């Protein structure tokens, strides 16, 4: 790392994250990546001495929140006295995960295994536990048939051969002391040799590459070392432009990463390691829906747990894993061996395709009477609800290539219901298909007011406001909309109640921000969300840069609260906005939520990459 950059970091001026694309592969890696691509769910484990005081792993001393000496005193409290690795593995397997990644050594330099590398600090040699805690877990993992992933920090802020100690303390300049730096390279590569020979990992999960260049890390040499032990080793992208797959962190991507192989590493609350006062947990429902979101974009979810210093896993985390297991065991064929779903224009929700492309899976996050797929040139052979053989789905397929699925006889899952559309051959979805164009009079005459509201919202989502110059008023009173004897009064009533969201409003959010239809006010400062049926949990918004002034139910007046998760105060990356709607306030046709922003809407559509620091 250049000295000018080091100074900037230490002065606290560089608080940004960047995305490093995985190295362009010169060989076909599809065979070795097959298990990873099909896995869809892995469990991340952050376990170390930081769990003793329940403070931020490594960063707490790096940022001078606690000095290094007091941080390392946690070695004396790390007991692992109730550690039962077989129970960990059983719980991980029950969750539906196909692999696990454990922190063998974080940036603090404390190794979970008995490392013989020069001047290594390890749990067996230096902690109260006095035992190797990594080996029994890896042994149990391999016996279970799950794949083995090892997290390894490139930086080691405690090691005397490493150049950086804390944000404000530098031991030496690499360019002025190349011998000492080479000693560190030998140290960390010795540790990788130990991990490779002792544990034969399927995957190495590097972290911390931002502190030095690829040349300084001796990246090519390190990759050769790892491949000498396992030619099919999978390496994440945090090795300076080398690696097999991307690792976005915390923020669920709005736009799917370009790399066909990617994995979202994600916390259950706001912390990676165990922190007793962090009770800001996402609900089990939110986590299931996050997994469905990631699957629909063709990625994996690496969900983190942070065990306590005695080796027990917090109850909240156990509950989340068990609920995940309930859902994954029920919906296996819609999770594993699936690929990225169909475009948002074709279906306003989350979806995926089987590897054969002969099954299309729809992830329904609400109980509703119907849904529509547009531009579908192939009619399915059948439609079923996974996990419910008694469910009956009525199918209507019209000449405009629109498929309507009726769910009136479906018992919905408490989190996400999965509908499977089965085809004889891979379905064809028409690109740039002509959007349905219904005259307002035709919609008003529909006997089903729910479908009428849906069609109005869908048309508006694309910027075609059917009610412009048709007699709608801004408050829905004194409307001059033309009626006929067959006009559905329930539809008119819905239009009147929700006039605010329909009067002079325009095109809604692009794909990725909200799994449904939306519209924007003329000044672009109020976002209207069309909510179908009864949501299984709070509705979610991604990639909204704005502050939220208030949220309310249109035509009802009720104010709603919201919660934001995964927002890092030092980053411009927005968090995920969750809005809970009381069930008793839902509209029987379609509920509309108004989100008032502090200024015209600004969207975050950048790639979500690795986090470089944790202030």
From TrEMBL:
Q: Keywords in alphabetical order, please.
A: Glycosidase, Hydrolase, Signal
Please indicate which residues carry the site annotation May be important for catalysis.
265
Instruction: Name the EC number(s).
Output: 3.2.1.51
Q: Which GO terms describe its biological process?
A: fucose metabolic process; glycoside catabolic process
One MF annotation (Gene Ontology) recorded for this entry: alpha-L-fucosidase activity
Q: Is DNA repair found in the keyword set?
A: no
Tell me which Pfam families the record gives.
Alpha_L_fucos
Q: What class of enzyme is it?
A: hydrolase
Q: Which residues form the signal peptide?
A: 1-22
**Which InterPro entries does the entry link to?**
FUC_metazoa-typ, GH, Glyco_hydro_29, Glyco_hydro_29_N
Glycoside hydrolase family 29 N-terminal domain: residues covered: 21-332
Residue ranges that the Swiss-Prot or TrEMBL entry lists as coiled coil: none
Q: Name one GO cellular component term.
A: lysosome
Task: Please name the Gene3D superfamilies in this protein's record.
Answer: Glycosidases
Membrane-spanning residues: none
Write out the similarity annotation.
Answer: Belongs to the glycosyl hydrolase 29 family.
Task performed by this protein: Alpha-L-fucosidase is responsible for hydrolyzing the alpha-1,6-linked fucose joined to the reducing-end N-acetylglucosamine of the carbohydrate moieties of glycoproteins.
Task: Give the protein's recorded name.
Answer: alpha-L-fucosidase
